[in-house]
Amino acid sequence: MSLIEIKNLKYRYPGAERLSLNDITMNIEKGQFIGIVGENGAGKSTLSQAFLGLIPQFYKGAYGGSVTIDGLSAKTTPVGVLCRKVGLVFQNPFNQLSGAKDTVYDEVGYGLQNLGIPAEEIHKRVESVLRRFGIWEYRKRNPFDLSGGQLQRVAIASVLAMNPEILILDEPTSQLDPAGSEEVFQAVDELTATGITIVMIEHKLEKLAEYCDKIALMHQGEVVAFDTPNMIFSRKDISELGVNVPAYTAFALKYGLRNQDGTYPATRRDLLKIIKADNADIRSLLKSCRNDLPDAQRNNPVKAIVGSETFSLSDLHFSYIEGAEIFKGINIGFDRRPTAIIGQNGAGKTTLVRIMKGLLKPGSGSVKLAGEDISKKTVAELASRVGYVFQNPDDQIFKYNVLDEVMFGPLNIGMSHEEAESHAHEALQTVGLEELCRKNPYDLELYDRKMVAIASVLAMDTDVIILDEPTIAQDYKGREKIKEIIRNESGKGKLVIAILHDMDFVADSFERVIAMAHGEILLDGTPHEVFRNREVLEKAALAPPHIVGLMEELEHEID
Amino acid sequence: MGKLFKTNFSTAVIVLIPACIGINYIGKLFAQLLKLPLWLDCIGTCIGAILGGPIIGGICGAANNLIYGFTTGDNITLVYALTSLFIGISVGIMARLGFMESFPKAMLTACVGGLAAVVVSTPLNIMYWGGQTGNVWGDAVFAATQAAGLPVWIGSLLDELVVDVPDKLITGIIVYLIVSKLPQKLTTLYDANAVIESLD
Amino acid sequence: MKSISLYTDNGSWIVRLHPFSKLFYLIAAILIPLISGHLWMFAVTVLASISFLMSSHMLRKAVPLIAFSFTIILTIFIIQGIFFKDNTSVLLTLGPLSFYKEGLLYSSRIGLNILNMLLSFSILVLTTSPSELVEELEKKGFSPKFGYIINSVFQIVPEMMGTMHTISDAQRSRGMETEGKLVTRMKAFIPLISPVVMSALTSSRERAIALEVRGFGANVKKTYLYSHPYTKQDQMMKWGSLTSLAAVIVLRVLHVL
Predict the structure, then answer these.
(1) Domain count, chain B
(2) Strand A311-321 to strand A364-369: parallel, antiparallel, or no bridges (unpaired)?
(3) What are the residues of chain B with a beta carbon less than 8 Å away from any beta carbon of chain A?
(4) Which among A390, A394, A452 is the top mutation candidate for probing chain C, defined by the most C β-carbons within 10 Å of its own β-carbon?
(5) Confidence check on the interface: ipTM exceeds 0.85, yes or no
(6) Whole-prediction pTM
(7) Is B170 among the domain residues?
């Protein structure tokens, strides 16, 4: 008998018309590492919550078929019992806190208290799990004060303290910065060694391919295939199913580097093995590789009016708390090239763009937009000139149909009703939501709500558009859409600035990259210049795009 | 009767309560921030009552005041837990009776909530504050009634009426606008009658 | 994170007392003057509370908690001093206004009661960690689910206040005015509060899942990580409060007071 047996599983959310899970049958053996991939809306999270009985016990709705966990039916066994066997960690670090405990130590012990485990045993387990994930030093801190990466480790620790046999990880790094993701992946590395059964949903395919024994490929509520990473990512129809392939597979595909069984390699290790075994001409590979190193300037030249200055910041000083200066004299100018700002959380990226938007007032120094000092202007006064899309669309959506939501900004800045409506339709067209314009935004999923938020700023037709982490929650298709939006808007002569954590995306779509750390600008150049500069990347604690990492390894091979 | 008060005490509902208390608090803060002449401090209680029923509404209201006593250090807030309790219960009952289905009906619910507040608060005001509310306009009405020689309870009732009813009416409009558009995926979680359908 | 609880641990003896000892004092301090029926008894309990606050270096923190009531107490003095229904004997006259003895006495009773309640309550609130109070109550049989509600409010509200600023920034970024005429300000309320409600509901759904995963719904008797010993000082505070209360009741019944 397998540890997890799923038979003809069907599920529909209350009030929904279509099945979210449609006749899924699969078995998972003890100790396996299983990945789930698929486009947004394919049913990945729903499936993961069916393992714990949250589907259907928590959500209600309509359910058919069966999920059996180590002999227990997930449909009828209370979640309070199943949670001893299956642990779950999901995307949002903050919402996973119990909210009842004011120290990390107590937070991790909370689940054990609920299970009625004796205090001495709890103390023992909490200490061991905190030490194991390197969070022992934070044990007395309030969990709400931790960074996202630290919090996700607390979440993993809290669940593992309960000694589950199965751990479900539902995109645990999707809302983290690169350093935070790295912390979580290190925790996962640590786990793979213990033999615990893991099911992981993850958009960072390079990582997933490395870990997984098998991957389930989902599409529209069905499991289309359940096979090894190499087999899954070598499928011809994979992009039609809305799934990207790991950067290494894409590379192998391009240069025809195959495994012996005819599949393409999914991990860097396998790829390098083939390159070496084939005695492939590394030099010529590198040469062609350098030629198509993602460099937006070369790949997708945007006819931007270089040199026409928009923002100019000089000797900018800023502090949230007096005496603790974040910016100690920043000087930078912006033209109209699409610009990405990269760096870890706390580097000052968001603070910088908020000053440009007028949401924060600089301590001293000047902020000029098209030659005019804007540091004294109110946010509302700047609204028609600088657009800012916040990270979380739920911080702004309040209307009951998409079109009204998108028209809110244009109407506020004095457009007539007709004008606002036509701008709104145009913006919705751009983000691909035109056919949903009469829908209630709350009925849409997060990735679509993010697009609504982007449209609501695009519709204001501002000269400058600032995007704060636009790719979070987006799948392959969504990211391609955002690339297109950036290119379109730049093409119209607008300045697009984006804060991003996804280096592959940055390398693909921006002409200028600003790397920040500790309130300073480390380097300001083309993606090529920034990503090939090891010293700067290390200082900013960033990893280069996968392909750059691969090139470096090949170069090293030649030396 | 039993059906009217039927309550689901699932985890989702328990967690809803602190969220509603938070909404009360933020509503009050936004009203202050915008310098509105209103309190708007029971939006969350009403939402809790509508989603979870009268018992949950009552708990949201009472817990709200009990907990805030701890954040302001004033135990007089604690006493008014009784008022909030009854606002929650009455709004919950009205919602279960279908009085949140259209705008005019929702206004009626708001009036009932406002009246519940007045009826419960007035004796408390008399007991603790000699009949006043601490609101300038309300207290001016109170002073006028006392000058005219009317009984304390009439003065106090009018004082409270002037203060509470407009506030609750506006609260009702806001709550209606928000609740009527909540997605079903969210509201089913709190529904005491939700069942799992079979697809087999 | 900014806490909304007023509790601070300054290491003083009252902070170290068991939460229940402070509860006993609170009850006694509020009831004693009310039962005795004498105005001077308020002075006794008020002075007791003040001296406790002073000895634990908390008096300065208690002042703002009480100050808010001063204006309303003042208006009570004015309104009742002039209009109180049993007013007969004029105490002083200021221009056209006459203040009566009965009204002023009545106001002093209200004022002192409020002052007494606020002071004795501030001892509990300033020196007791809410989560500790809840935990001790749970051990005595208080429902852990209700305990959760109380604890989580203290954690969630500061979190929501953070969201509140982001929401206000997001809407102002889209050109919404938050200042100006009353109508403008009224109009701004919905765009501000709606996202708060929605994000509160969606995050509460996720938090409910997180709790389920952590055995919140398990039907097992919960265990506790810490125990708070009952010290000699606790005994003194508890029995001191209870015997004083009993004494006042007895004296009152015997018509000595």
Answers:
(1) 1
(2) antiparallel
(3) 10-12, 15, 18, 181-186, 188-189, 191, 194-200
(4) A394
(5) yes
(6) 0.93
(7) yes
